[in-house]
Specification:
This is ABC-type nitrate/sulfonate/bicarbonate transport system, periplasmic component. This protein is an alpha/beta fold. The protein contains 18 helices and ten strands. Strand 6, helix 9 and strand 7 form a beta-alpha-beta unit. The radius of gyration is 20 Å and the shape is globular.
Length: about 350
């Protein structure tokens, strides 16, 4: 009954307004995505059959990192993008016409530690450590083990890599990363596997990987929460390629509306989304109970309002320019289609 009630409630408001003029039946939309919990709204839209009912034929294209998805976007192989927002700045810097229409989540990423590095942290606290505590933990680990702490992230230019470096340099205050930590850039799945195999001492992870490693490794500690890394840390977004093109306008508003509808479901009734997210991310390995825990822990972080992440995007872009990852700063406001967002909120 609870599930039925939630479905009935979802039929009203912003979603119904945008669906009043459906696209032609079977309009193909190629959506590139990263297989993380922040992409869950896409899995709900597809799994619930909402897109099909609206006359959209979603063709999901899986990538393992933001830079991979951006390559496909720039070459015209995808029409929409569901992944981290920062790589989109690089796409726009290379002349791609792409805009964010809704956010999907915030504060997805955390830094977790295990083994000797975890043992250096105060026992009565999870995350929220002062810069001095973090610095002292790194130094004590290096002295004990004879090598720098190894932290797994994703390839340079990805959101996890940039955010980790931002936190270490701007929040913790490390002036020289190469003499303090060793950052290992690998794909999403490899980061979790390396952490579980004790091949690294810490990792930048997000759900459901966080739930998995905490269930398997009793000594896992949270070195930095998503809020520690950056308040309202920009996470996954829905972006449309060439949003002003006539063929895109046929479906862009519909897809954005369905995405918001799914995000509302994820934040208010995460258990209802678990079957679809498990099918998309479980790979036959993760069961639905694990996914439910991951979704419940993340429920408050599923948000649609893109204005919440603009300042964080600006800060991280400035950092990437400073690091030489971007040649020059882009107009951050131009990355967001706030007019469409306002229409959907009416």
């Amino acid at each position: 009954m609870k599930r039925l009630f939630s479905r009935l409630m979802m039929l009203g408001g912003i979603a119904l307004a945008a669906l009043s003029t459906p696209a032609q039946a079977g309009t193909p939309v190629r959506v590139g995505y990263i297989p993380v919990l922040g992409s869950s709204a896409l899995f709900v839209v597809d799994g619930e059959g909402w897109a099909k009912d609206a006359g959209l034929d979603l063709q999901l294209v899986r990538f393992t990192s933001g830079p991979q998805a951006i390559q496909a976007l720039v070459s015209g192989r995808i029409d929409a993008y569901v992944a981290g927002v920062l790589p989109l700045l690089q796409a726009r810097a290379h002349g791609s016409d792409v805009k964010v229409v809704t956010a999907a989540s915030v504060e997805e990423l955390e830094v977790v530690a295990r083994g000797a590095l975890a043992n250096q942290l105060p026992k009565d606290q999870e995350g929220g450590f002062s810069p001095e505590v973090v610095k002292n933990s790194f130094a004590a680990f290096t002295k004990e083990k004879g090598h720098l702490p190894r932290i797994a992230a994703q390839p340079m230019g990805s959101v996890p890599d940039s955010l980790l470096r931002f936190w270490l340099q701007k929040q913790v205050g490390l002036s020289s990363l190469p003499t303090t930590v060793s950052i290992v850039g690998v794909d999403i799945d490899a980061a979790q596997q390396a952490f579980l195999a004790n091949a690294v001492d810490a990792a930048v992870l997000r759900e459901p990987a966080l739930t998995v490693v905490r269930s398997r490794l009793p000594d896992v500690r949270t070195l930095a929460t998503g809020h520690d890394l950056l308040p309202d840390q920009p996470g996954s977004v829905l972006a449309i390629v060439k949003p002003d093109a006539v063929d895109r306008q046929v479906w862009a508003k519909q897809l954005a509306s369905l995405f918001i509808r799914a995000t509302t479901l994820l934040s208010s009734h995460p258990d209802d989304a678990a079957p679809f997210v498990t099918k998309a991310l479980g790979g036959g390995i993760l069961n639905e109970d694990v996914m439910k825990k991951a979704l419940e822990r993340s429920a408050a972080r599923f948000i649609s309002d893109p204005t919440r992440i603009i300042e964080g995007v600006r800060q991280l872009q400035d950092f990437e320019v400073e690091q030489g990852l971007l040649r020059k700063a882009q107009q951050v406001d131009d990355l967001f289609d706030l007019d469409l967002w306002r229409q959907l909120k009416q």
